[in-house]
Amino acid sequence: MDNKLKPQKVWVKEGFIGQRMIVLPPNIKRKIITNQVIKNFYLTAIGHYPNAANHGRERKTGSNQYILIYCVEGGGTINSGGVTHTLIPNSYYIIPKNLPHSYNSDANNAWSIYWIHFTGDISDKIFDRYLHNGAPVVQHIPYDENRIKNFEQIYSILENSFNEKEMEVMNIYLLHFISSLIYYKEANPAIYNTDSISNSILFMKKKIGKNLTIEELAKQQNLSVSHYSRVFKQKTGASPITFFNQLKIQKSCQYLYFSDRSIKEICTELGFDDQFYFSRLFRHITGVSPSAYKKAHKK
């Protein structure tokens, strides 16, 4: 009888094509903590991992800095304090300091991430502003090219100099970069002048098994289709129907991973009359077929 064990997935910390990363030397960090301009908030490490296949890391005792992971392509998961969070494009998560955690790129749809380790006297307060109802959660925001340019400015400065003034302006840019994520809603009041979109998303989640039209969604919020579609895309970065389908596929991933439901049963549960359409949509969003996803994640 063949008793061979299935080989475990091997995750790697670094070494990806196109990766960039900088870690501040100890002597530079000592200078920063005595600098009155930036000691309140500064980074200790920064990096960009594009298409980081097989990327993964575990810190059994956590880190003494906060760790921001911002995903722009692909996907992955973060386990922090025993809770698993899923990152998709245009989402980010901040890992609390001193908390055991692990994270890894999706095996079938490798993530591209920007990451930063940060600390300082006000870092706890900045982290508090990120929390939702007192807990760290994945936050979704529209892609902004200016945010990426800001990151590149930070990285470029670090590549060229660790001098005092350069460290000051770099960490000022850092605060702007973090703020563009945490304070996105407050910095864009025209987009968030109503909570109708948040209510609409809650409605979608409650009706996840239904086939809702754009007209029904707009009517539920007492908005015209054109206005509803415009403000919805401004807030989420996607059209209402595209977003609704993404919610359905996310839910189907949970069913495939945590249950023994067949693909046909999942289709029925989520309101898909055509199993082939569901499979095409699933592949379009995740990069793999439902059967391949189920096989890859089957325990």
UniProtKB/TrEMBL annotation:
Keyword annotations of the record: DNA-binding, Transcription, Transcription regulation
Ranges of residues in domain HTH araC/xylS-type: 198-296
GO molecular function, one term: sequence-specific DNA binding
Tagged with keyword Flavoprotein: no
InterPro entries: AraC-bd, Homeodomain-like_sf, HTH-like, HTH_AraC, HTH_AraC-typ_CS, Tscrpt_reg_AraC-type_HTH
Protein name in UniProt: AraC family transcriptional regulator
Organism annotation: Mucilaginibacter terrigena
